[in-house]
Amino acid sequence: MPAESVRADKWLWAVRLAKTRGIAAEWCAAAKVKRAGHPIKAATPLRAGDVVELPFAAGPGTRVIEVKGLIDKRVGAPEARECYDDRTPSEMFEAQDVWRAARKEGVRGRPTKKNRRDIDRIHGFWD
């Protein structure tokens, strides 16, 4: 009999959106995971049809994920992908690409004041 709900941290880990369950719990504790615009705790039950916002594992921006299936055990990537629908706007993925490109350029050593401002601009601190 399938479960009606699953803990938020457990589901994020099981569908491979968070590398570890501890990281998923930290995201929840830091109010980075939201449902309907409200932060959720790690033990908050998720149900099919919920729309969850969470940060990318690395880089700026947030992902918008719709819960399609409930699992509490970590499964292979193809099976995990069937349990959610990624509704993240394409602008977020473009921002991720810009962020990755800036990291690849990689300034060695301590950044100059100009480099620091560029980094802050990429992260969205300067508009």
Structure overview:
This protein has 127 residues and is α+β, with helices and mostly antiparallel strands. The chain is elongated and about 55 Å long. The mean pLDDT is 88. The longest helix is centred in the last third of the chain and has 16 residues.
Number of separate strands? 7
Compute the average pLDDT.
88
From the alpha carbons, calculate the radius of gyration and give it in angstroms.
17 Å
Sheet with most strands? 5 strands, antiparallel
As laid out across the biggest beta sheet, the strand order is 3-2-5-6-7
Low-pLDDT windows of residues: none
Order of helices and strands: EHHEEEEEHEHH
- If helices are DSSP runs of H or I spanning 4 or more residues, what is the number of helices? 5
List the main descriptive attributes of the protein structure presented here:
alpha+beta, 127 residues, five-stranded antiparallel β-sheet, two-stranded antiparallel ribbon, single chain
Secondary structure: elements and pairs:
Blueprint: E1 6-7, H1 8-14, H2 21-29, E2 34-35, E3 38-39, E4 45-46, E5 51-55, E6 62-67, H3 77-81, E7 84-86, H4 90-105, H5 113-122
Antiparallel strand pairs: 1-4, 2-3, 2-5, 5-6, 6-7
Summarize it.
Helix content is 37%, strand content 17%. The protein is of the alpha+beta class. Strand 2 and strand 3 (38-39) form a beta hairpin.
